[in-house]
Request: fold
Amino acid sequence: MLIEVYGKQVDLAEGASCAEALNEGLSKKQFKKVVVAKCGDTLFDLSAAIPTTCTTLEPVFADSEEGLEVIRHSTAHLMAEAVKKLFPTAQVTIGPAIKDGFYYDFDYERPFTPEDLEAIEKEMISSVGANKEFSRRMLSADEAKTFFSEMGEDYKQELINDLGEEEYSVYSHGEFSDLCRGPHVARTGMLKAFKLLSVAGAYWRGDENNKMLQRIYGTAWSDPKALKKHLHRLEEARKRDHRKLGTQLDLFSFNDEVGPGMALWHPKGMLLRAILEDFARKEHLKRDYDLVQGPLILKRELWEKSGHYENYRENMYFTEIDEQAYGVKPMNCLAHMIIYKRKIMSYRDLPQRYFELGVVHRHEKSGVLHGLMRVRTFTQDDAHLICRPDQIESEILELMQFYSDIYSLFDYDFQVELSTRPEKSIGSDEAWEVSTEALRQALEKSGMKYSINEGDGAFYGPKIDFHLLDSIGRSWQCGTIQVDFTLPERFDIVYVGEDGARHRPVMIHRAMLGSIERFIGMLTEHCAGAYPVWLAPTQVRLLNVTDAQFDFVKKAERFFKNKGIRVEADTRNEKLGFKIREAQVEKIPYMLVIGDKEVEAGCVNIRSRDGEDPGMVTLEEAAQLVLDAAKAPFEAGGMSYSFSG
Ligand SMILES: [Zn+2]
Ligand SMILES: [Zn+2]
Reply:
């Protein structure tokens, strides 16, 4: 039979395997990097016979996204084999590939220890050395149940019962077999770059009424170099963990007495936050937004009207006042619409752009709470643009520019994604058509590259998402822009058109920083706590050498404060070297050292966080230097961090 393999016509015997075909079509060097074969959208084991309907066979290379997924899932099997060998009473459950790696959940009598992980890893390496073959066979449902029951694997039997299929594929390598769709690498020898990372408790099927299992996480890559790079990134991420830096820089904390997922902002963290919020307000005012604010709780009837009560109730908190039920707001839209309705708007009044640093509460499960990244109380930099349908495109275009300006100011690269109508949606075909097209047009005109996420829009309208790429290569979902034609309908908001008739406006929900909490968490990890000078809660720290300079230090502190510089004086009776190290740990942008010589000259000695030492300058010069550094990003349209931390 004649098929095309990687662009080359290849003649093969009937029943030839994918490996044979790829071996023919590829160079030796290329073939060595192949993990599985692909025909259409389906992946096949290399040992599988070429499907009879296949006319074109493609290789899937180890370093491709699909290739990595196969490697990661195969490594999960490899790990399960090792766990069963070392801990025969452990039961296997499921072990999928995830981003950058894999996990496998085991039912075992106690949590695995770091020493266990080491032993498991060693066992895995030995299985790789033995280069065992992955083989696949099909079993009927009954055969599969008997097979796993003889192995004593209760969870696999439960899975078979729930899946209710007629046939199951089972993959085996060495002594180990698993119920699995596959595909897998051909041999364990192909798994050369992995590392086990951590253990965590996980409920069977994510249900807290079920038994707690032991989940082992690992990472796996196409080659040792890629693994090394990833481990380095993890190490960097650990060092930059915003929870750790939050304590180190005395910015914020969480306290069980207060409640999980609700941050306490310490003086310095609150100052940082206030500066960021002021910045956000100013940037919005500059772009013709109005500041508004609604209450934290609104009557339940309003949430019924909006559909939140029906669709989002589980994530909301409720309370009662004078026998009237109220809902604590999980979003800020409703008050904004009521504000819009305070008077009759004409087509000339649109768009109305309402901005609110809106405090919202959402009930997140306690298991998913994570520092500032996932909390129950947070503040959105939220805005609602209420506009005519013909204004959607220009509004979106302006937003794209706005977001782009702000993200680059924080030194972020970003990716843009357009999500279209999902299967379950409300609203007319026409409304979807018009708004999706407007988003597409705006994206095209913005000149920004974007990808399309078919069917991933909100149920009430299409949306654009922004993913920020941080300094160690991680991607974070941040800003969104969502078009909504349903809420204006439900709340009957209108404008008077040129024709004197009433028309329905469109509402655009958008948040740029997303949540202030999360943004600060992200930014803290992005810059490793070395905030740009304009944002640093402490810009300058004065350090005296001995008590003899105390009065001058106090005078200098007042001088800088009067200039609007955020300054602190460290006049403790400690060694200068110690005080400098502390300021470095706290990533203070400028340390101004004052000894006898400086006092005599009426000067300070500057040491900057970036290692630049302008040396001895007058107070006036020092102030100017700091003020220039603090405004530089706004003038240049960008800012640069020092990632030395
Ligand atoms: Zn599997
Ligand atoms: Zn909204």
User: Anything to note?
Assistant: The first helix runs from residue 18 to 25. The mean pLDDT is 93.
